[in-house]
C-alpha cells in the first residue's frame, strides 16, 4: 500500500516557485528521507503533505486522502513534528501534554508520551525553561500522542545532544517496526542514512536523486585515500587517482578491491601507503555530487543571453 | 469535546497571564467602576448612570475585542496557532474556543462592574434586565469575533495594542463613556451603528430588535472577514 503519493507537485510563494513539479511515493511502514539544502523545497513539500498549504498543481494523496480538502480526516491518522512552532511558554511539559491529550481522540497516556520522548524528568518544568533539544523532544511527544499511522518529522533532531539524538532514532526505528510510516527531512545525512530505507534528494525545487537507500549508495563510488608517497608520480599508481591536499584519492565502485590492488602494488615496491582510508560511498558524497551538479546546471541555464 | 478543550485552555491561559490581566481586566474594571464613582461625587446621578452605561462599550472593546486580537496575533506570530492546527482540532474549534473564552470574560466583567457601581456609586441595577443580559451576551460575542477578524490587519504581534487602541477609543466615545463629547450629527449617527453602541443602546432603552439586527450584521461581517483574511501564520516577508 502507498502511504504518500505525490505526482507533479508544484507550489509557489509570492511568485517564487519553491517546488517545481516533484513526484515520489512512500510505501506504508517505510522510513523515507527527504533531503536537500536550505531552500531546496523540503519544508514546503512537507507543509503541503501535512495540509498546511494547498498545492498549486499536481496531485497529493496522503493515506489515500487529499490532505488539504480532507485535513480533518488526515489529521486523525497523522502526527506532525513541525520544523518550528511555538508552545505556551508558561505551561509545564506535563500540562502541555495534558492539553494536547484533550485535543486528541485516543491519546497515549501522559506518562507513556513523556517516556517515549525522554522527558519524564522534565515533566514539571515550564516550557520556557527547556533547551532547544528538549523542545524538539516535546514536539515529538505531541506528534506521537495520537498513535499516528503516518508521521511527518521535519528536522526532528535539530539542536539535540548526541544522546538525545540516539534516543530519538531508537524511538523512530521502533515506531517504524510497529508499522508507522515516517517521512523525515533532515540536514544530518548520517541520520538519514541510519534511519531511512528510501530517499529523495531535492535541490532548487526538484528531486535530483532518489530511490532505495542501499541501491543508491551502492551505485556510487567509494573512496580509497592515502598520503601520496614522495617521489612517485601519480601516473605510476596502478589505479587512476586525483591528488587533493597531498592525499591521493581513488574512487572505485568496490573500494575494498581497489585498496587491495594498491597495497599489493605498494608491497611489491617496498612502499608504505601511509594514512590509508577505505570508505564506501556515503550519503554525503552522493548529496554533494547531486547538489553540485544541479547548481552547475542551473547556473549555466540562468546565464544572461 | 475538543471545543470545550480549546475553551478551557483559552480561559486558563487568560487568567494565568499577569500582563494580560492588567490590560484586559484591571484597566477596564478600574475605569468602569472608578469613573462613575468619581462622577457621582460631582454631578447628578443621571449623568453618572449615562457614563457608566457608556463605559460598558469600553469593557466590550477591551476585554472582548482587544484581548482576542492581542492573544491571537501573539499566538500566530509565535507559531502556536500553527502547532494547534497540527493537532486534530479544526480551525473553527481553535477560533471558537478562543472567541467564546474572551466573550465569557467580558460578560463576567460587565456583570461585576454593574454590581460594583451599585455599591460604590449607588447606580441602580439595569432597568431592563432582559435587554441588559441579551445585549451583554450578544455584544461580547460579536466583539470577540470581530477581535479575531481584526488580527488580519495587524502586521506584527507587538503592534496589536496600538492597532486596537483607536477601536476602543472610538467605541467608548461613541456611547458617551468618555463624558459628553459634542459630535457632529452625521458622525454620531455613523458611530451609533457600531456593535458596542447597539449593545449600550439596548441596555439604556430596553429596545432589542434593532440593536440585535445591527450586532447580527457585524457578526456576519466578522465571519466573512475571518473566512477570507484570517492568517494562521506570520507573514514570511
Defining key terms:
heterodimer; A: 305 residues; alpha/beta; 4-stranded antiparallel beta sheet; 10 helices; disordered C terminus; B: mainly alpha; 78% helix; 0% strand; globular
Q: How are the elements arranged and paired?
A:
The complex is a heterodimer of chains A (305) and B (237).
Chain A: E1 2-13, E2 16-27, E3 31-36, H1 42-49, E4 57-62, H2 71-75, E5 78-81, H3 93-102, H4 110-116, H5 132-144, E6 150-154, H6 162-177, E7 181-186, H7 189-195, E8 198-203, E9 206-212, H8 213-218, E10 222-227, E11 242-244, E12 247-252, H9 255-268, E13 277-279, H10 283-301
Parallel strand pairs in A: 3-7, 3-8, 5-6, 6-7
Antiparallel strand pairs in A: 1-2, 1-4, 8-9, 10-12, 10-13, 11-12
Chain B: H1 2-16, H2 18-42, H3 45-77, H4 80-85, H5 91-120, H6 129-150, H7 160-174, H8 185-191, H9 195-205, H10 209-229
Helix pairs in contact in B: 1-5, 2-3, 2-5, 3-5, 3-6, 3-7, 3-9, 5-6, 6-9, 6-10, 9-10
How would you describe what is shown here?
The complex is a heterodimer of chains A (305) and B (237). Chain A has 305 residues and is of the alpha/beta class. Chain A contains ten helices and 13 strands. The longest helix of chain A is centred in the last third of the chain and has 19 residues, at 283-301. Chain A is elongated. Chain B has 237 residues and is mostly helical. Chain B is built from ten helices and no strands. The chains are: A alpha/beta (305), B mainly alpha (237). At the A-B interface, helix 3 of A face helix 1 and helix 4 of B.
Mean pLDDT of chain A equals 88
> Structural class from helices and strands of chain A?
alpha/beta
Radius of gyration of chain A: 23 Å
* Count of helical regions of chain B: 10
Seen as an oligomer or otherwise, the chain set is heterodimer
The SSE string of chain A, one letter per element, is: EEEHEHEHHHEHEHEEHEEEHEH
How much helix, percentage-wise, in residues of chain B?
Answer: over 70%
Which H/E pattern describes the elements of chain B?
A: HHHHHHHHHH
* Rg result of chain B: 18 Å
Low-confidence segments of chain A, given as residue ranges, are 299-305
Principal-axes shape call of chain A: elongated
Give the proportion of residues in helices of chain A: 25-40%
How does the major sheet of chain A shape up? 6 strands, mixed
- Count of individual beta strands of chain B: 0
How many beta-strand segments of chain A?
13
> If strands are numbered along the chain, what order do they take across the biggest sheet of chain A?
5-6-7-3-8-9
Low-pLDDT stretches of chain B are none
* Terminal CA distance of chain B: 37 Å
Amino acid at each position: 500500500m502507498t502511504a504518500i503519493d505525490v505526482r507533479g507537485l508544484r507550489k509557489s510563494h509570492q511568485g517564487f516557485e519553491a517546488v517545481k513539479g516533484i513526484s515520489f511515493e512512500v510505501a506504508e511502514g517505510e522510513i523515507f528521507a527527504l533531503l536537500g539544502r536550505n531552500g531546496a523545497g523540503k519544508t514546503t513539500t512537507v507543509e503541503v503533505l501535512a495540509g498546511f498549504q494547498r498545492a498549486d498543481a499536481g496531485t497529493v494523496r496522503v493515506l489515500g486522502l487529499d490532505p488539504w480538502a480532507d485535513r480533518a480526516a488526515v489529521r486523525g491518522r497523522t502526527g506532525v513534528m513541525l520544523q518550528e512552532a511555538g508552545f505556551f511558554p508558561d505551561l509545564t511539559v506535563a500540562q502541555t501534554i495534558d492539553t494536547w491529550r484533550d485535543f486528541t481522540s485516543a491519546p497515549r497516556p501522559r506518562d507513556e508520551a513523556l517516556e517515549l520522548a525522554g522527558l519524564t524528568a522534565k515533566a514539571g518544568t515550564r516550557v520556557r525553561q527547556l533547551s532547544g533539544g528538549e523542545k524538539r523532544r516535546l514536539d515529538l511527544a505531541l506528534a506521537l500522542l495520537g498513535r499516528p499511522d503516518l508521521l511527518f518529522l521535519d528536522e526532528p533532531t535539530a539542536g539535540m545532544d548526541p544522546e538525545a539524538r540516539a534516543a530519538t532514532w531508537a524511538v523512530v526505528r521502533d515506531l517504524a517496526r510497529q508499522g508507522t510510516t515516517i517521512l523525515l527531512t533532515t540536514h544530518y545525512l548520517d541520520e538519514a542514512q541510519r534511519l531511512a530505507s528510501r530517499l529523495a534528494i531535492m535541490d532548487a525545487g526538484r528531486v535530483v536523486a532518489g530511490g532505495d537507500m542501499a541501491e543508491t549508495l551502492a551505485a556510487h563510488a567509494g573512496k580509497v585515500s592515502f598520503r601520496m608517497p614522495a617521489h612517485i608520480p601519480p601516473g605510476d599508481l596502478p589505479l587512476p587517482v586525483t591528488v587533493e591536499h597531498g592525499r591521493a584519492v581513488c574512487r572505485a565502485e568496490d573500494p575494498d578491491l581497489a585498496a587491495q590492488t594498491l597495497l599489493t602494488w605498494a608491497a611489491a615496491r617496498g612502499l608504505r601507503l601511509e594514512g590509508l582510508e577505505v570508505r564506501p560511498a556515503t550519503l554525503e558524497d552522493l548529496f554533494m555530487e547531486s547538489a553540485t551538479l544541479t547548481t552547475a546546471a542551473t547556473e549555466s541555464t540562468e546565464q544572461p543571453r | 469535546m475538543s471545543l470545550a478543550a480549546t475553551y478551557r485552555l483559552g480561559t486558563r491561559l487568560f487568567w494565568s497571564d499577569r500582563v494580560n490581566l492588567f490590560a484586559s481586566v484591571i484597566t477596564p474594571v478600574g475605569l468602569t467602576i472608578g469613573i462613575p464613582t468619581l462622577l457621582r461625587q460631582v454631578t447628578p446621578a443621571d449623568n453618572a448612570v449615562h457614563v457608566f452605561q457608556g463605559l460598558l462599550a469600553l469593557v466590550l472593546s477591551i476585554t472582548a475585542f482587544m484581548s482576542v486580537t492581542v492573544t491571537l496575533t501573539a499566538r500566530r506570530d509565535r507559531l502556536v496557532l500553527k502547532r494547534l492546527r497540527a493537532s486534530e482540532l479544526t480551525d473553527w474549534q481553535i477560533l471558537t474556543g478562543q472567541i467564546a473564552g474572551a466573550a465569557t470574560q467580558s460578560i463576567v466583567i460587565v456583570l461585576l462592574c454593574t454590581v460594583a457601581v451599585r455599591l460604590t456609586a449607588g447606580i441602580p441595577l439595569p432597568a431592563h434586565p432582559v435587554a441588559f443580559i441579551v445585549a451583554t451576551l450578544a455584544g461580547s460575542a460579536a466583539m470577540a469575533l470581530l477581535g479575531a477578524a481584526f488580527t488580519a490587519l495587524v502586521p506584527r504581534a507587538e503592534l496589536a495594542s496600538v492597532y486596537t487602541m483607536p477601536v476602543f477609543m472610538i467605541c467608548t466615545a461613541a456611547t458617551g463613556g468618555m463624558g459628553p463629547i459634542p459630535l457632529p450629527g452625521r458622525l454620531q449617527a455613523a458611530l451609533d451603528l457600531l456593535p458596542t453602541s447597539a449593545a449600550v443602546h439596548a441596555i439604556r432603552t430596553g429596545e432589542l430588535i434593532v440593536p440585535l439586527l445591527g450586532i447580527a450584521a457585524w457578526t456576519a461581517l466578522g465571519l466573512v472577514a475571518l473566512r477570507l483574511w484570517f492568517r494562521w501564520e506570520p507573514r514570511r516577508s
